[in-house]
C-alpha cells in the first residue's frame, strides 16, 4: 500500500451510492468537478462505493480516469448488460454473465484489492453463514486496509458481489447487493478510517464527500396498512417498494450519522430527479448525462474550497 495510515493531515474520502445505470449521473458530476479542479482526485486517500458505486470507487482507485469510468455507462454497454429481460418472478430479471464480462474487459482480471494504491471499501451481503461461529447471514465489507481478510479478493469479484441486486441479478459467490447493508457507504467509510486496527485516523482530520445517484421524492403512495408480501414486492407506485424502503431508509440514516459524527467536514450531494428512473432503465442514460450538465454545483464547490482543498 502507498499509505500506512500515519498521515496527520486531512484524510479525504469520496463515497458513491448504489443506483444501477444512475451511476452515470454520479460520474458526470465528478467529471464536472474535475474540469473545475483537475487535481481534485489526487488528494483522495479512500474511495467507498456500493453496487454501481463500487464500479466508480474501484475504477478511480485503480487509476482509471473519470472519462474512462464514464465510458462504462454508455447506453450501448448498459443495454448489453440489461438484456435479455425476464419477468423476474421466479428467476432474476437478468443473467449476470454480461456484466461480469464487461467488468473483466475493463479491469485487469487478476487485479486484487490489496494491489490498489488507494484505500477502498465495498459493501455486500452474504446469504449463507459467514463463519462456523456466526450461523447467520451477515454483511461483508471488501477492503484493503491493513489486516483485511479480503485484500486478496479480485476487483471484479468485489464489484459483482456488491452489485448483485435482488430481483435484478442472481447472487454472486453467495453475496447480494451491498445496498441491503449500506446503499450509501459514507458512515461505514468513517468507521473504517478511524478504526484503531485499520485506519487509525483522527476523526477531526477526516473530510467526506458523499455523492448519490439521484433521488425521487415520493409525495404519497398507496396506503400500506393492509399490504401483504405481494404488494410490498410488486406494487408499482413506488416500484419494488420493499427494496426501495430498505435502500432509502439506510441511506437517510447514513446521512444523519455522518453529519452527527463530523459535522461540516461532511458534504452530501444527491440531486432530485423529476421522475423515477429504475436501475436498469438504460434509455434514461442520455437524459441523465444532460441533467448533470445543468446541475448547480455551487454548494459542492464552496464546501470543497473551504474544507477539502
- Give the structural class: alpha/beta
| Stretches with pLDDT under 50, minimum 5 residues | 1-7
Q: Please write the string of helix (H) and strand (E) elements.
A: EHEHHHHEEHEHHEHHEHH
Give the rounded overall mean pLDDT.
Answer: 91
**Mind summarizing the main beta sheet?**
7 strands, mixed
Q: What's the total count of β strands?
A: 7
Radius of gyration: 19 Å
Q: Supply the number of helical segments.
A: 12
State the end-to-end distance. 23 Å
Which range does the strand content fall in? 5-15%
**Apparent shape:** globular
Describe the structure.
Strands 1, 2, 3, 4, 5, 6 and 7 form a 7-stranded mixed sheet that branches. The chain has 12 helices and 7 strands. Helix content is 38%, strand content 12%. Mean pLDDT is 91; it is low at 1-7. Strand 1 (11-16), helix 1 and strand 2 form a beta-alpha-beta unit.
Condensed summary:
The chain is built from twelve helices and seven strands.
Features:
alpha/beta; globular; 38% helix; 309 residues
Helix and strand topology:
Layout: E1 11-16, H1 23-36, E2 44-49, H2 52-61, H3 66-71, H4 75-81, H5 97-106, E3 119-126, E4 138-143, H6 155-162, E5 175-176, H7 179-182, H8 186-194, E6 206-211, H9 229-234, H10 241-262, E7 266-269, H11 285-294, H12 298-308
Parallel strand pairs: 1-2, 1-6, 2-3, 6-7
Antiparallel strand pairs: 3-4, 3-5
Amino acid at each position: 500500500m502507498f499509505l500506512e495510515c500515519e498521515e496527520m493531515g486531512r484524510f479525504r474520502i469520496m463515497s458513491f451510492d448504489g443506483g444501477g445505470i444512475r451511476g452515470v449521473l454520479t460520474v458526470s458530476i465528478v467529471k464536472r468537478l474535475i474540469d473545475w479542479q483537475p487535481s481534485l482526485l489526487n488528494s483522495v486517500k479512500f474511495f467507498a462505493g456500493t453496487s454501481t458505486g463500487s464500479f466508480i470507487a474501484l475504477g478511480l482507485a485503480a487509476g482509471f480516469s473519470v472519462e474512462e469510468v464514464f465510458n462504462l455507462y454508455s447506453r450501448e454497454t448498459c443495454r448489453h448488460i440489461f438484456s435479455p429481460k425476464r419477468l423476474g418472478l421466479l428467476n432474476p430479471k437478468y443473467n449476470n454473465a454480461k456484466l461480469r464480462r464487461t467488468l473483466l474487459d475493463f479491469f485487469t482480471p487478476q487485479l486484487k484489492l490489496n494491489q490498489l494504491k488507494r484505500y477502498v471499501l465495498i459493501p455486500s451481503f452474504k446469504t449463507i453463514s459467514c463463519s462456523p461461529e456466526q450461523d447467520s447471514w451477515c454483511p461483508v465489507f471488501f477492503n484493503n486496509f491493513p489486516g483485511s481478510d479480503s485484500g486478496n479478493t479480485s476487483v471484479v469479484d468485489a464489484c459483482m458481489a456488491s452489485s448483485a441486486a435482488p430481483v435484478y441479478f442472481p447472487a454472486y459467490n453467495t453475496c447480494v447487493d451491498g445496498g441491503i447493508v449500506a446503499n450509501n457507504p459514507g458512515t461505514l467509510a468513517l468507521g473504517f478510517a478511524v478504526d484503531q486496527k485499520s485506519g487509525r485516523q483522527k476523526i477531526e482530520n477526516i473530510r467526506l464527500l458523499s455523492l448519490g445517484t439521484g433521488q425521487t421524492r415520493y409525495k404519497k403512495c398507496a396506503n400500506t396498512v393492509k399490504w401483504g408480501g405481494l404488494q410490498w414486492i410488486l406494487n408499482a407506485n413506488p416500484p419494488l417498494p420493499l427494496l426501495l424502503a430498505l435502500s432509502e431508509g439506510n441511506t437517510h440514516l447514513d446521512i444523519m450519522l455522518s453529519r452527527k459524527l463530523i459535522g461540516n467536514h461532511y458534504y452530501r450531494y444527491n440531486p432530485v430527479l423529476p421522475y423515477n428512473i429504475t436501475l436498469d432503465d438504460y434509455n434514461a442514460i442520455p437524459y441523465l448525462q444532460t441533467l448533470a450538465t445543468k446541475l448547480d454545483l455551487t454548494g459542492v464547490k464552496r464546501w470543497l474550497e473551504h474544507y477539502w482543498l
